[in-house]
Amino acid sequence: MLAFLLLELWWYSCLDNKYRLEFPDMSDEVLLERHDGWAEIVLNRPATKNAIDGPYGELLAEHASALNADPSIGVVLLRGAGGAFCSGLDLKAFNADPAPAWQAEFQTIWRQAHKALFNLNAALVTGVERYAINGGAALALAGDFMLIGKEAFLQVGEVQQGMAAPYNLAWLRLRHSEAVTAQVALLGRRISGDMAVTMGLAVESVADDQVLERAQVFTQELAQYPEGAMAHVKSISRRYSELDADVWFDRAFAAGPAPSQRPRAND
């Protein structure tokens, strides 16, 4: 009888270990750090170069929405952990067998993340270290202000794979001209930090090992403006477009997938 009980305890222990391996805690994939008048949203998957998956998108939307409910936060810095911004979609996670439970809802999850950034009342600063690629580039372009390393690069490379890049296109057309959009999204080439500044995509390029420090200082400087000032200016600016987030992003998706695009997650 004792041997049977020990065997049963061992079996349940194995099941518990198996459960923990298959369903790891993902609550720290994106971190929220609050400061005096400003906050940081940290993409926190350094082992994957902060690649995008479902839980990451959910947390990004959750944190951005939480900050939007706090009028004391005037500026938000979006950055990556581990010395890189974002390498794009986590293809290993998307191609996993069996598919993760979140995969079927990823388009909705990712739309909610971009909507939350679009609706952010606070000014959004993005600090780009090393690279921001494809879906990661869309997050970098979501910023009202981008700071980037001189040797870092931004790349919207989907066109070279015969794919569309709807969120990248939506953010580009919200903030930049058709000419700049063409250089970024039609060519699909790497855009260095200095080139990003020349094109108006970024406000500053600094030495790569100084990106995080400079982005934090820049964010703190903006946080010294009178409370609510930046939110008020953003609200006036958005009135000129008279569009909500879904209407704006729907325009980018209206044409459908690129001719050679196989069904997969969008950027």
Short description:
By secondary structure, this protein is of the alpha/beta class. It is built from 11 helices and 9 strands. It has one domain: 2-enoyl-CoA Hydratase, Chain A, domain 1.
Description:
The protein has 267 residues and is an alpha/beta fold. The chain has a single domain, classed as 2-enoyl-CoA Hydratase, Chain A, domain 1. Helix content is 45%, strand content 15%. The protein is built from 11 helices and 9 strands. The strands form 2 sheets. Strands 1-2-3-4-6-9 form a 6-stranded mixed beta sheet, sandwiched between helices. Residues 1-24 have low confidence and may be disordered.
- The name of the CATH superfamily reads 2-enoyl-CoA Hydratase, Chain A, domain 1
First CA to last CA: what distance?
Answer: 57 Å
How many separate structural domains? 1
Count every helix, treating DSSP H or I runs of 4 or more residues as helices.
11
Question: What radius of gyration results from the CA coordinates?
Answer: 20 Å
Quick check: average pLDDT?
Answer: 87
Biggest sheet descriptor:
6 strands, mixed
Written as H for each helix and E for each strand, in order along the chain, the element string is HEEHEHHEEHEEHHEHEHHH
Number of strands: 9
Return the structural class.
Answer: alpha/beta
Helicity, as a percent range: 40-55%
Text of the CATH class? Alpha Beta
Poorly predicted regions are 1-24
- Sum up the overall morphology in one term: globular
Describe the strand arrangement of the main beta sheet, using strand numbers: 1-2-3-4-6-9
Strand composition percent = 5-15%
Oligomer class: single chain
Q: Per CATH, which architecture?
A: Alpha-Beta Complex
CATH topology: 2-enoyl-CoA Hydratase, Chain A, domain 1
